[in-house]
Design brief:
There is one protein chain. Helix 1 runs antiparallel to helix 2 and helix 2 packs across helix 3. A hairpin with a 5-residue loop joins strand 14 and strand 15. The chain is built from six helices and 15 strands. The strands form five sheets. Strands 1-12-10-8-4-5 form a six-stranded parallel β-sheet, with helices on both faces. By secondary structure, the protein is an alpha/beta fold. The chain has one domain: Rossmann fold (3-Layer(aba) Sandwich). Bound molecules: uracil (URA).
């Protein structure tokens, strides 16, 4: 495998909660709670390099020269369905963020990724964007979602997922070398149905109890 470029979030809390999510005996309610918690912890890392500026703040005892985030606006764009579960966790850190939605499917004939839904904030080109999907398997959905967000003029995009494959990361790296990828695990590969192995199963079904 060629070099792949990504940031692995190996914080013990993230790893512990991801292990609970992988467990086949974890039910939907707990799974959803864990997705939200892990997303918040991952977003904390993904926002590490947000630009800050110095301000003077009057404390009860004097003036503190301190820092605040320098007015960058953020948007979160979940890829349907599983990315939906990641929105709340990110919003708990950046409550004023706007939300877009992207839905894609894999055309069984051509095997290419096709968009079926795309609704983005009108000012997305002025925002830093985090695209969220639980699983980065082939990289098809991620690459298409990034392409759609870029097509609206957005420059600053990060992609956040929980479990990835090296092939998926390599595909996104090749299509979008400017996009930083954050994940909590890189698994062995995919099965014949393109599910990540060992992974955690169908993330949407696990989250919404649809199977
Ligand atoms: N989507 C899922 O929900 N699970 C996988 O393993 C891969 C893609």
């Amino acid at each position: 495998m060629a070099n792949v470029n990504y940031t692995l979030i190996d914080h013990p809390l993230v790893q512990h909660k991801l292990s609970l999510m992988r467990d086949v005996n974890t039910g939907s309610k707990e799974f959803r709670e864990l997705v939200s918690e892990v997303s918040m912890l991952m977003a904390y890392e993904a926002f590490r390099n947000l630009p800050v500026k110095s301000v003077d703040v009057q404390t009860p005892l004097g003036i503190a020269n301190t820092k605040i985030i320098s007015g960058r606006k953020i948007a979160v764009v979940p890829i349907l369905r599983s990315g939906l579960g990641m929105v709340d966790g990110v919003l708990s850190l950046v409550p004023a963020a706007k939300i877009g939605h992207i839905g894609t499917f894999r055309d069984p004939e051509t095997t290419s990724t096709v968009e079926y839904y795309c609704k983005l904030p009108h000012d997305i080109d002025t925002r830093d964007v985090i695209i969220a999907d639980m699983m980065l398997a082939t990289g098809g959905a991620a690459s298409e979602a990034i392409r759609l967000v870029k097509a609206h003029g957005t420059k600053n995009i990060k992609f956040m997922c929980m479990i990835a494959t090296e092939d998926g990361i390599a595909a996104v790296n090749a299509a979008h070398p400017d996009v930083e990828i954050y994940c909590a695990a890189v698994d062995e590969g995919m099965n014949e149905n393109l599910y990540i192995v060992p992974g955690l199963g169908d993330a949407g079904d696990r989250m919404f109890g649809t199977k």
